TrEMBL record:
GO biological process: peptide transport
InterPro entries per the UniProt record, alphabetical: SBP_5 (IPR039424), SBP_5_dom (IPR000914)
Annotated organism of origin: Umezawaea endophytica
Stretches for region Disordered: 29-50
Domain of life: Bacteria
Signal peptide: 1-21
Pfam family, one: SBP_bac_5
Domain Solute-binding protein family: 110-521
GO MF annotations in UniProt: peptide transmembrane transporter activity
Name of this chain's protein: ABC transporter family substrate-binding protein
UniProt keyword list: Signal
Length: 607
């Protein structure tokens, strides 16, 4: 799960399980509703549909306005893990399974351009055979093969650790172990083009479609580059059980060698390659000359960063760009929907806004009553009415951290808070021994009910803070706006905040979100607010290995109830996926794990 936009459609066990409810489309005002996720997702190991990129006409150069620029080639570690980088990487880094939007449904399919086949040959022990196409190569001509799969397994399953500043142990690869740690062995055969993963006995993994793949917020990296840079002759000889100088050398390059962008090491295994980027305002992609599949429609793609939704819409109207994917903005949505010169895509997707309390800060760690009071004074309905309704008329406050409202299994565990209840918040504080000072703010001992709410520079988030401040100030709680252009990229992964306002970009597989909530020493590589619960750790792991779909739903709701009890995070609302284009470009859509609006950029055509 990528920061910036969340949770999956719980444990999709087949390729057709997740449904995104479309709430609008087209400049002509058309709309539709894709309905709810299927209640019967099918069997683990069922035959998956295969996707192959279509043959398309050349449309030349195209420009896309996005809300945040590309940052890092390796986007799969805790220090990076940013949605903004997937916008470019979705057409660059290979992924055995990919997601396609089909009539409002997010369908997981085998990437038929990359893979010859993926087959579950046994469930006892769970065994999966992955066959990479013979012609699949990186942009330097070297094969995409078992070494690349092995490197991802090593990074996720390695037992080598490093001590954090707080003394806790964490993965030396800064990577989530989810799924990978359950693989007992990974074998290479057929000239390294066949990979066989065998899981430990009684360690089945229901969301195997997420390992190595974008539906699990992952992907493959060129292992041969790591070999060249580290001097390791054969990465497949380095095992997860090792904790020696060799694995430390591998981890050093894995976590640092692919940061930022260096064309010499940031290779492509997809239809496009990144040719230049300033890591901020502009990233350029061009067709990968070594790509063996059908050529992408655009000869050059220019990704232009624009943090202001209104300005991005102006760029579209002025024909400076052909497509925009800003934060959902009511005024922009209404403006573009009313003009037949543009197409608008808006859907209730897998993205949700939330506020996380930094549980390492004494103010929040030691004062559960303050966390509750803050949650009580938050006026979530006002947020929805003022910031979301004009984009998605069906929007409502979100009452779960594990399910979206259009998913089977959604239960409202947070419905008792977030109602802008000033009196309830005051009662909670006073019942906990807090006293209201002359300035109207409550205090207790060394603590003052005041905190900074950090977020990146986006107008809607500044508006969110302003709305939250209102009722909470009346309740004697001070919220200080703390916006920073580098918040998501730098401060959030470094836990440099009192509380954080951001969103998770969800994936169609639930297990991948484990790393955002698990204790850091249990694999919480994306756990930026330092939350820790043994109940959550154990139940979520149990859910990941549970092949019975209904039982998984029950386990995940038990996880959600525990997080409500701990109240380390407050869900605000499901954020509509939003994009717009000139009417002669399409088809546009939005798949968060596939790069948002760029998920199918290789197939865009001019009408």
């Amino acid at each position: 799960m990528r920061k910036s936009k969340a949770v999956s459609a719980l444990a999709l066990l087949t390729s057709s399980a997740l449904v995104l409810g479309a709430c609008g489309s087209g400049g002509t005002g058309g709309s539709g509703d894709a309905g709810q996720q299927d209640s019967n997702p099918g069997e683990v190991g069922g035959a998956d549909q295969v996707y192959k990129r279509p043959k398309v006409e050349d449309i030349g150069e195209i420009a896309v306005a996005i809300e945040e620029g590309f940052h890092n080639y390796n986007n799969n570690i805790g220090a990076t893990n940013n949605f903004s980088s997937t916008i470019a990487l979705s057409s660059v880094q290979p992924s055995p399974f990919i997601s396609e939007l089909v009539d409002g449904k997010l369908v997981i399919k085998v990437d038929g351009d990359l893979m010859e086949s993926i087959e579950v040959t046994s469930n006892s022990p769970q065994t999966i055979v992955w066959k990479v196409r013979k012609e699949a190569v990186w942009s330097d001509g070297k094969p995409i093969d078992c070494k690349d799969f092995h490197l991802k397994w090593l990074a996720g399953a390695s037992k080598a650790t490093v001590k954090g500043e707080d003394g806790s142990e964490a993965s030396i690869f800064d990577s989530s172990p989810t799924g990978y740690e359950d693989i007992e062995k990974l074998d290479c055969s057929d000239n390294n083009k066949t990979i066989t993963t065998t899981f430990f006995a009684n360690k089945n993994y229901a969301d195997y479609r997420g390992i190595f793949s974008s539906p699990g917020s992952d992907g493959l990296l060129p292992a041969h580059i790591l070999e060249e840079k580290t001097g390791v002759a054969d990465i497949t000889k380095v095992l997860p059980s090792q904790n020696d100088e060799t694995v430390k050398k591998v981890a050093e390059f894995y976590t640092k060698g692919w940061l930022g962008f260096d064309a010499a090491v940031a290779l492509s295994g997809g239809p496009y390659t990144i040719t230049s980027t300033d890591l901020k305002d502009q990233t350029v992609l061009e067709r990968n000359p070594k790509w063996w599949g059908e050529k992408g429609s655009s000869s050059k793609i220019i990704l232009k960063t624009n943090t202001d939704s209104q300005s991005a819409a102006q760029q579209l109207q002025n024909k400076e760009v052909q497509v925009i994917a800003p934060q959902a903005d009511p005024a922009v949505a209404q403006q573009l929907r009313g003009d037949s010169a543009f197409n608008v895509f808006a859907a209730g997707g897998q993205t949700f806004e939330h506020v996380d309390f930094n549980m390492a800060r004494p103010l929040f760690k030691q004062n559960a009553d303050l966390r509750l009071a803050i949650a009580q004074c938050f006026d979530r309905q006002s947020l929805v009415d003022k910031l979301v309704k004009d984009v998605d008329p069906n929007a409502k406050p979100l009452n779960s951290l594990t399910f979206m409202p259009n998913e089977v299994g959604y239960e409202e565990h947070f419905s008792d808070i977030g109602k802008g209840d000033v009196e309830a918040a005051k009662k909670t504080l006073e019942g906990g021994g807090w006293k209201q000072g002359a300035d109207g703010i409550y205090t207790k001992g060394e603590f003052r009910a005041s905190f900074k709410l950090g977020h990146k520079v986006v107008q809607r988030r500044a508006d969110t803070v302003r709305i939250l401040q209102d009722k909470c100030k009346q309740a004697g709680i001070e919220i200080v706006d703390d916006q920073d252009v580098d918040f998501n990229d730098k401060r959030l992964p470094a836990s440099e905040f009192d509380a954080a306002l951001f969103a998770w970009v969800g994936q169609p597989l639930k297990a991948g979100a484990y790393g955002n909530y698990a204790s850091k020493d249990k694999g919480g590589s994306g756990n930026y607010n330092n939350y820790s619960s043994s109940v959550v750790d154990e139940k979520w792991k149990a859910a990941n290995g549970e092949l019975d779909y209904k039982k998984r739903v029950t386990l995940m709701n038990e996880v959600d109830k525990q997080m409500r009890d701990d109240l380390h995070s407050v869900p605000l609302f499901q954020l509509p996926d939003f994009a717009a284009s000139s009417a002669d470009i399409g088809p546009i859509g939005y798949v968060g794990v596939g790069g948002g609006v760029t998920w199918n950029i290789f197939a865009w055509q001019k009408k």
